[in-house]
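Session log. Operator J.P. requested a structure for one protein chain; no other inputs attached. Running the standard single-chain path with token output.
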Amino acid sequence: MGDVAQLGDRVANEQSMFDRIRDFLTRNALGPDPVNYEFGYRIASNPGSDLARAVGELTDGGVRLTRTDIEALGGTVAHMPASAGQREEIGQMLVAQTQMQVEGFQDLVASMRTEARDFGRDLAAKADAIRGLSGSVSVGDIVRLTSAMLERVQTTEEQLEAATREADELRRKLEEARDNAQRDPLTGLANRRAFEESYAERQQRGAKVCVAVCDIDHFKRVNDGFGHAVGDRVLKAIAKSLNDHCEGQLVARYGGEEFVVLFTDMALNEARAMLETAREEVSRKRYRLRETDAPLGEVTFSGGLTLAAPGESANDAFVRADGLLYAAKADGRNCLKVG
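Structure written below.
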């Protein structure tokens, strides 16, 4: 029983730490970038520290921590936003961590199976002994043996019940971690990995697939002129417009200011109509700075849309749509090219 208990403790400890960090990030609406994750680990690993008490006082009454608060309290892993690659790496790390917990659970179940097998052998041996000594075995001996067997059965049942609960929780957490690894934390859209996997799945089942690549026009001017915080708001606004007007289709942030839309079982002209609606809505809006109400200037996007051939790779379809996007840029921007 010792090995089973040790494995159970190890799995429980790893899961508990992961849960506390995740709960800290969720409670404060913080993304899993290196600064936030490291800060959450410091709080979770030493809840009685001065730092944890300071955070508790600061968030008393449901107030959420901001990035400025974290840096003021000593979040010093890096003083810059995580890149898309770093965010994806963090997501993969969360998946790997949960996978380790699953593997630990599998070890626990294997140990329990061994324990049950050994118990079965002991039971068979004792039954043989009773048959061989039936003439000299007392009722008291049988009662003691039966009580010992019932106790072991009850212990095993309790462990199996706990293991079943653990399996359900681990399955839920693994699904959540996988979802985080396939989602862009800024916009909430799917990321490049999710797009590529979804494209491959649709091609494998023979679905009709159209791919659009969209890019915000003159986005560098927004970042250089107004800062990355404003640039992030623009990215979220474009993401929302594409997601709203391409309802039912997979909209993903491919990287930087570039988005992809995966249309499934839809004619090319239908996909184009959806994209045109989103493009026209974005170009009609007059964006203003939240802080000063000053006009941000025109915000538009260009796009390229293509029908993927059966069995064509995601990269080949993307390259063709990307070429059409550049043609739209060369033709004055704020338009779509289809081919």
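Operator note: Confidence is low (pLDDT under 50) at residues 76-84.
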